[in-house]
Amino acid sequence: MSVFPKISLKPEVTDYLRSVFLNKEVLDAVGHQEAECRFQKLLTCLSHPPSYTCVRASTHLAPLDEIRHKLGDELKKQQMCSSSEDISVQILPHPRIPDVLLLPVDGPRPVEQLGSEVVVGAQCGSAVLRGAHVFVPGIVASPKYMKAGDVVSVLSDVEGRCTRAATNFQGKKVFVGNGVAHTDRSSIFCTDEPAKGIGVRMVEPIYQSPSFDGVLPSLTFLQNLPSVVVGHVLGPLPGERILDMCAAPGGKTCHIAALMRDQGEVVALDRIRNKIDQIRQNAQMLHLRSIKAFCFNSTKAVSSEPAQEAEGPPFPPESFDRVLLDAPCSGLGQRPNMSCTWSLKEVCSYQPLQRKLFHAAVRLLKKGGVLVYSTCTVTLAENEEQVAWALHTFPCLTLLPQEPHVGAEGMLGAGLSPEQLRLLQRFSPELSWEQSGEAAPPLPCRADRDTIGFFIAKFLKN
Ligand code: SAM
């Protein structure tokens, strides 16, 4: 069921995306009506959250089943504190990915909106739709006399137009559920040191899923399914030296180190200094010592000096067994996302940077090494077209099959052959059974299709 309007985009961006999803090769293959229908489903799907929560379990610290049971106990305790009903928490292992647990999301649920409104930023609103409570920094407006204990409706300022500390915002906002204020208005906006922690505890969210705040922090990590697939596709082995070129906040870096049983070295680079602390904090929380994080521009990560053993960047060519380039991108696959105010120029600005990073990645990789390129966007220009460019620019690269391959194949339109497209993995969210009226397939089957938009390519350097 669709409760929110389609993602709102600038008309020039909608036109661009339509030209991508209705490109000539696609039209020849499926026809205009089917291509338009898929495109419209995509736009609807992007504004809604996936129908399950994906948790990566720290199987380097404990067996999956033990983590599953502990998580069940923790979530039960959480529910007993917030509700008198005995609701059992369903936690299912993924049939093909050995460190993934899936938890169904209950929603959309009919929840009545109240007169008292707290407005939160779009990012906070999206987090609420995925099970989070509202944290104080996410609040942008509240009723004038709000006191701790008041019951309020939470609305997301989807276009980021609300002035901080407003009392009555009339702009575009979307209702995401009801909660109880944990703090007075004065502690949010009027003090030198604003309150931290939970600002509104959600009691009636439109999409109900457990809040993971403080739940088994070393044993579970919230991560979108395709992001977990990336780690497995890279296939790091204990003792190897791996480079994660665009690593913050470090979800994939930590997964790579965990898959290596923390043996070897994972070098994590990111250009933004304060994000390096997030990588280090995540590594510490998951008890991973093989991660070395540096603030560095990865386009400059290849040293021109003669080869020397270097701990930090820049590195001599051919320093790494495997390289992950989880590239900065237009992010149009993120869900739920109700509005993107970017211009077409901004959406199209990433291709040159991704190519610069790709050049560095290929040089830093050993011969015989593996390079994985991934994005969380749906455009051809940042995905299949980059693959076609890379194969043309670097004759030493060939595409490799991916394991697991649970997404769809690559999209038509970039001139890749059917064999090449089959080697690519594109996660293309589609609103499926709910809209078409079919019965929903069981969660583990549904999970592979109901993801964020994502793309993965795996190369061998010959
Ligand atoms: N791999 C991360 C994870 O799984 O947690 C997400 C990475 S996010 C898609 C892209 C990251 O690239 C951002 O953190 C951004 O700061 C970083 N970035 C952008 N340009 C960069 C550059 N030239 N060198 C290094 N990092 C860069």
Describe this structure in words.
With 462 residues, the protein is an alpha/beta fold. The protein has 3 domains: 52-104, no CATH class; 117-205, Roll (Archaeosine Trna-guanine Transglycosylase, Chain: A, domain 4); 225-461, Rossmann fold, CATH 3.40.50.150. 45% of the residues are buried. The strands form 3 sheets. Strands 11, 12, 13, 14, 15, 16, 17 and 18 form an 8-stranded mixed sheet that branches. It has a 6-stranded mixed sheet with strand order 5-9-8-7-4-6, with helices on one face. Strands 2-3-1-10 form a 4-stranded antiparallel sheet. It has helices at residues 11-21, 24-30, 32-46, 64-82, 122-129, 185-189, 225-234, 251-259, 273-285, 344-347, 351-364, 384-393, 418-423, 433-436, 443-447, and strands spanning 52-57, 92-93, 100-104, 117-121, 134-135, 139-141, 151-157, 174-181, 198-205, 220-222, 241-244, 265-270, 291-295, 320-326, 365-375, 397-399, 425-427, 454-461. The chain binds S-adenosylmethionine (SAM). S-adenosylmethionine is lined by residues 227, 246-252, 269-272, 275, 297-299, 326, 328. S-adenosylmethionine binds at residues 227, 246-252, 269-272, 275, 297-299, 326, 328.
Tell me the helix content: 25-40%
For the largest beta-sheet, the strand count, sense and barrel status come to: 8 strands, mixed
Shape: globular
Mean pLDDT: 93
Fraction in beta strands? 15-25%
Q: Which class of the largest domain in CATH terms?
A: Alpha Beta
Number of helix segments?
A: 15
User: So, CATH architecture of the largest domain?
Assistant: 3-Layer(aba) Sandwich
Instruction: Identify the bound ligands.
Output: S-adenosylmethionine
Number of domains: 3
Mind telling me the CATH superfamily name of the largest domain? Vaccinia Virus protein VP39
Compute the separation of the termini in Å: 48 Å
Structural class: alpha/beta
